[in-house]
Amino acid sequence: MKNIVLTGFMGTGKTAVGKILARRLGLVPVDVDAEIEREQKKTIAEIFGQFGEDGFRDIESTAIEKLSAMKNVVLSTGGGAVLRADNMDALRKNGVIICLAASPETILGRTCESKDRPLLQVDNPLQKIKELYEFRKPYYEKADIIINTDDMSPAQVAEEIIQAIRNRR
Ligand code: S3P
Predict the structure, then answer these.
(1) Distance from first CA to last CA of the chain, Å, rounded?
(2) 3-state secondary structure (DSSP) of residue 82
(3) Cys-Cys crosslink for 11: which of 25, 111, 113, 114, Cβ 3.0 to 4.6 Å?
(4) Ligand 1 centroid to 79 CA: how many Å?
(5) Residue 2 in 3-state DSSP?
(6) Protein residue whose Cα sits closest to atom 10 of ligand 1
(7) 127: left (phi over 0), alpha (psi -120 to 50) or beta
(8) pLDDT tens for each residue of 83-121
(9) Measured in angstroms, how far is the CA atom of residue 10 from the centroid of ligand 1?
(10) Which atom of ligand 1 is nearest to the CA of 12?
(11) Cβ pair 79, 126 in contact under 8 A
(12) What is the pLDDT of residue 1?
């Protein structure tokens, strides 16, 4: 079985869905951001603070190259991982790419409590989400399968992914 790669904007549930999906399919859940934090011994916010977004993206690409070589994993990526073609090439080699989508309002609701996402620490996060989403849309659309997660629990999203993968075969 190919790896399952979850892409999508912040707050679309990639980490939570990845864990459930991995359990259901007997695969290992791997979260790229968590692996970066473990390896760098810094939080994502600290990495952004120290190296800026470009520095973070370089670290992210190195991690993706390494992690996408693993087998039998559900790989949950950070929301900006799709922006680099090299990342997508590496992820696609071993994996089927599933993009989780949600409306900007849903994303705001799911992310507003947390201070973990440096890109959303602005005066008007809804506006920022809309701008970033608009810019990134063509990148997210490169996925093999796109699943809308509005009004769905992570378990329901995982179930839908399993069905979509089966239907694709
Ligand atoms: C980012 C998403 C974050 C994290 C970093 C940048 C982005 O991951 O990688 O803050 O550019 O969309 P999540 O999508 O898991 O929140």
Answers:
(1) 11
(2) helix
(3) 111
(4) 4
(5) coil
(6) 117
(7) alpha
(8) 999 999 999 999 999 999 999 999 999 999 888 999 999
(9) 5
(10) 14
(11) no
(12) 84
Pocket test for ligand 1, best of 44, 59, 108 (most atoms within 8 A of CB): 44
CA distance 127 to 145: 27
What's the whole-model pTM score? 0.97
Q: 73-76 and 28-31: which strand pairing?
A: parallel
Of all protein residues, whose CA lies closest to atom 2 belonging to ligand 1?
A: 79
Q: Which residue has a Cα nearest atom 8 of ligand 1?
A: 78
Residue 122 has pLDDT above 80, yes or no: yes
- Give the phi and the psi of residue 114 in degrees, each rounded to 5: -95, 145
Distance between Cα 43 and ligand 1 center (Å): 12
CA of 8 to the centre of ligand 1 (A): 9
Q: What is the pLDDT of residues 34-59, one digit of tens each?
A: 999 999 999 999 999 999 999 999 99
**Of 137, 157, 91, 108, whose CA–CA distance to 10 is shortest?**
108
